[in-house]
Amino acid sequence: MKRQPVVLFACFGVKAERWLHVLTPLAVAFELRTWPAAGDIGEIDYIITWAPPHGFFTQFVNLKAIFSIGAGVDSLLLDPALPDIPVARMIDESLTVGMAEFVLTQALHYHRAIPTYQQYQAQREWHPVSVPLARERIVGIMGMGELGRATASMVRGAGFKVRGWSRQARPVDGVDTFAGTDQLDAFLNGCMIVVCLLPLTAATHGILNRTLFSRLNGAYLISVGRGPHLVEEDLIPALDAGHLAGATLDVFVTEPLPSDHPFWVDPRIFITPHASALTHATTAGPKIVDNILRAIAGKPLLDVVDRAEGY
Length: 311
Ligand code: GLV
Prior knowledge:
The chain has nine helices and twelve strands.
């Protein structure tokens, strides 16, 4: 009898139970195994993964495709031993809407001068601050992929003027689009809030640096893509120089952020633990299973990463 295809769940640093709770009842046309209980390694056809160590996949000699539970696949693509098979990334509302909600929360926080009131409160001071309406504020979003476009629409829905910057122009209704390094300065000029939602590639590594900050005048940074977008040692000097007024950082070069890192104690920096948008197994699990069933049926996979582009 022909054996069922075998799918291995191998997500690192993730609570497996909430995924297995969703995936196990859906594992009808395939057998589901969980790392490290992989059984005969040569039987593994597909892997569902997050943040595997480099070289992890080389042992699976019959692997046919890899399914990421996250949107960003940089950790997979940076593996020099990644096998030459399709890699599908996650596109799900828990990530797109979740990210848009997070960015909107922070944009409103800065727009309505909440950090200023927090300072006043600490000093028991009573000073009303008059702020313009959101339609007079510009939010610039770097990266107009799935997350950037969803965020642009929600932020625009709240009334802000929205700009989008990406490698190639990606038009979105009501968003002023800018493309390429030639238009980066024009994009930044006048932004009150700059959001980084770029994929991490060789071209975007370190893009949030002193040169970029020098184009800003008291703006707020919301860094929610990947830690290495930011040249960390350039941030506090940019705050001190007034190019930046504050920063929300969700991602860091080293995660978890080391407890002695200067960002923790700087009142101008607001930190969240890589949690701006977390994939929900309840919606994303069935999507991965559908994609695996496509693979089993020999159909082209959805949301396959372009390895040359790096996302
Ligand atoms: C989270 O960082 C993701 O890539 O989904």
